Amino acid sequence: MKTQKFKLALTLLLTLGLFAISPDVKAQQNKNDSSMFPKASEGMKQVVIHLASKANENDFKVELFVGANKLIDCNTYFMQGKIEENNLEGWGYNYFTANSNGEMGGTMMGCANDKKKNTFVHINSHITRYNSKLPIVIYVPEQLEVKYRIWSTNKTLLSAKSN
């Protein structure tokens, strides 16, 4: 009787072990898997960013920039459009969509010389949380590109004084 119970328990453990995935493997699968996200619509492309794992990821943020390199003069330029955050229904994940037709605006100062420089002109950036367990997925017009910056906190808390 004890032998049968032991065999049954051993079989059950081995069966569960075959279907169990370690948390590290599962996290790695999620990090690299973007198949649940919608395909890019016509005229758009999907850009996927994979972040490196960090200790205390709550101390970091990711700033997303969508734009293009343009040859500009001494004025300050920006690209029209915005980055919207969307919810992936049924999954609880988010993704981003950049809406821009690539048109630019800028200041109209007189430049002392006609010298032009190649600069990345972008729409207003968007800051999101740092999460290395999931990819950052952003859909942008095909002619634009995505850049990002990682911010970290200064762990020193400052005191505010009341009047």
Can you put this structure into words, describing what you see?
This protein has 163 residues and is an alpha+beta fold. The chain has a single domain, classed as Immunoglobulin-like (Sandwich). Helices cover 17% and strands 39% of the residues. The protein is built from 2 helices and 10 strands. The protein has helices at residues 2-19, 23-32, and strands at residues 44-49, 60-72, 77-79, 82-88, 93-99, 104-106, 117-122, 126-129, 136-141, 145-152. The chain has a 4-stranded mixed beta sheet with strand order 1-9-5-4, with no helix packed on it. Strands 2, 7, 8 and 10 form a 4-stranded antiparallel beta sheet that branches. Strands 3-6 form a two-stranded antiparallel sheet. The protein is flat and about 50 Å long. The N and C termini lie far apart (79 Å).
